[in-house]
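The instructor's notes for this session suggest beginning with a concrete chain rather than abstract definitions. Hand out the sequence below and ask the class to guess, before any prediction is shown, which regions might be ordered.
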Amino acid sequence: MKANYIQFKSPQFRVLSDKQIDELHFASLQILERTGVSIHAAEALDLLGQAGADISDPKRVRIPSLLVDQALRTAPKNITLYTVDGQPYTHLNGTRSYFGAVVDQPDILDPHTGRRRPHTVEDTAALVRLIDALPNMAWVMSSSLVHGLPPEVAEKVIQLQCVMNSNKPFASSTLNTENLKGILEMCYIVSGGQANLRAKPFYVNSVEPTTPLVHNRESLEMSLICAEAGVPNIVFSMLMAGATCPATPAAALAVANAELLSHLVVTQLKRPGAPVIYGAEPNVMDMRTSIFPYGSPELCLWCAAMTELTHSYGLPMFGTAGTTDSKLVDAQAGVEVTQQVIMSVLSGADLVHDVGLVDHCSMISPELMVLTDEIVGMVRVMTGGIEINDETLALDLIDRVGPGGNFLAEEHTLKHFRKHWVPTIMDRSQLSIEETGTPVKHCQDLLREKTLKLMAGHQPPSRPEEMVKEIKKLEKSWFDRAGLPYKYPSLG
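After discussion, reveal the predicted structure:
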C-alpha cells in the first residue's frame, strides 16, 4: 500500500502576532480620529466632508473608523498587471513577490568604465531593455530623474522608453497631474483606449504622502485621476524614525498606516473599487549622517511587518529590495541586497521596487540589477518549499540501485537534475590559473560581462507602425508645449 504524500508549502514567516496587528490597526484609527491628517486638495475635502469626516480644520481632518472600514471593504484584494501587449503577467494577491528595477536617477554607475556620470535618456532606454532581458525582473519603475531634460518633459519621455523597450508592466513616481495625464494619454494610444487600459492595466502610478500625516494637493489629485480612470495607484509612505515620526518601530508603523488608510478612504469615496496598492518604507534616520539608510536591517524588518499588516487587510503590498548604501557593487551591496530580497520574499511583499539603486538612491547601477536578478533566483529556490510524493522520494529507484551504487546514469536523474539552480555570475570552477594558464574570472568579472552582453544584445519588442506614429506625434506635442526642440533618442 502506498502512502499518501502532500506537497509542502513555501516556508512561512511572521514578524507580528495577530494581537500586534490588531494593536497597530487600532492605533492608526486613533491617530485618524484624534490627531487627524492634513488635506490640501479641495475635492478630497469635499468627499470626506460629505461622507461624515470632520473637515472644519483642513490641517487636522479627522476621519471616523467607519469610513476606514468601508474603504477596506471596497478596495480590490487582487490586482493583475498585464504586459504592454495585453497578457496577464503579475498577480498581486499575496502569493508571490515581483521585483522591479528603477531606470532613471541623477547619476549612473557606467558598466563600461566603472565610473559615475550623469544619467541620460539613452541610458534609460538601455536599462529598460536590460530589465526586459532579466527573467526575475517583472516590471519597470521610474523616478522622473534624468539629465538634460526639464521635469515637465523628462518624466513622460522616460515612460515612453518603457513602452518602446520592454513588454513588461511599468510604474512611475509621478511629479504632477499634468505629467500623469500625458502618460495616461500615451497608455491609451498603446492599449487602444481608456476602457482597454482599465480592463488590462500595464501602467501603475505612484504617489507619496508627506510624512507626518500630510496629503499634498498633487498627490491627492493624481490619486483621484487614477481612481476615476481605473488605473492602479501605489500610495507609498516613507518615514524616518526619530525625524518624521517617533523613534520606535511601533510608532513608525502606526503613522505610516494612518497615512495610507486616510489616502485609501479618499480614493474609495471617489470610486468604490478603485485599485490601490499599499506601500510603505518605514526606516531609521542615521543620526551620524542624517541619511535614509537603505541597507539598514530595520528597513527590512519594518517593511516585513508592514507587509503583514497590509495583508491582514487583504491588500497588495509595495515593498523595497535590491538597493544599497554602497557607492559600488561590492561586498556591502551583496549583503544589503540579499537581506532585502530574503525578507521581501519571506514576508510576501507583492510588488518590490528599487532594484539597482546605489549610494542612498542617488545613482543607478546596471550591474546591481543583474546581481539582484541572480540573488532573486537563488532566494526563489531557498523559499520554494519541498515537493514530497512518490516520484520525488524515488523509493523504488533507491532500492534498485542499492547500497554503494550511484545515480548518474539513471533516467530519474536526467529528468530532475535540470531543475537544480545554476549560477550565471557565481564562480564554481575547479581549475586554478596554474592549471588553465589563464586567469580565473571572478564574480565581478562575470557580472560585468553578463551586464554588457545583455545591454548590447537584447532586442526590444517591436510596436505597430501606426502606434509608433501616434506616439511620436504625442511626444512632439510635449516638447512643443515646453518650448523645446523635439528629439527622440530611441525612435529617431
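Then share the key points. The first strand starts at residue 38 and ends at 39. The two ends are 70 Å apart (CA to CA).
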